[in-house]
Amino acid sequence: MKQSPRVLGRPRHNENAKPTKDIVLETATRLFIKEGYKNISMDDVAKACNVTKATVYYYYPTKGDLYTSALIAMMDRIRLAILHILEQPSPFKERLEQLVEVHLSATVDIDMKNFMREASINLSESQLKEVHISENKIYQTIEQAMQLEMEKGTIRKGNATFFAHTFMAMMSIGYFKDGEGKRLFNTVQETAKEVTTFFWQSVHNNE
């Protein structure tokens, strides 16, 4: 029986190799992190992956699609890491401190504000909606943990959404640098401790 011709741009499948789509996405994410959206072309991604440009376009029809997928994949990894920490049996305050430390350590080279700024400029309305859905899932994961700890009496009763957003906003202080590039605290560990302590003083149930 004669084999059907491959669809143009569809890569050959190798059962033992990592899926080409994953390789393209991972490579593109690294390039976007290092160079930014505007400075990376689909041709750059293809060359870095050692595949044809047609292959990249087969999986991601536009650079906007690729950037959207990169952001969503990044946020999904962040959410799963946060969930893993929050599900540990250690005291809630310790989990929050670990969350800040791990998150800041993992994203030290990622300018999320710039990522989102470039997304708002270059992505379509539907693509932005996809990104925001993934972003909201991160907040919802923390919000659910806050709600659970309220029910346990660990932290005072309040608006779990407000608590989650406040905590994330405080955590972002870890990215702050002054005009000379100096951070507020010397280490990620110190930042995690200061942020968590400050937050904890506001929400801890003292009854």
From TrEMBL:
It comes from the Bacteria. Residues 41-60 bind DNA. This is TetR family transcriptional regulator. Keywords: DNA-binding, Repressor. It holds the Pfam family TetR_N. SUPFAM superfamilies: Homeodomain-like (SSF46689). The keyword Repeat does not apply. The keyword DNA-binding applies. PANTHER family: ACREF/ENVCD OPERON REPRESSOR-RELATED (PTHR43479), ACREF_ENVCD OPERON REPRESSOR-RELATED (PTHR43479:SF11). Gene3D superfamilies: Homeodomain-like, Tetracycline Repressor, domain 2. PROSITE patterns: HTH_TETR_2. InterPro entries: Homeodomain-like_sf, HTH-type_Tx_Regulator, HTH_TetR. Residues 18-78 form the HTH tetR-type domain. The lineage of its organism: Bacteria, Bacillati, Bacillota, Bacilli, Bacillales.
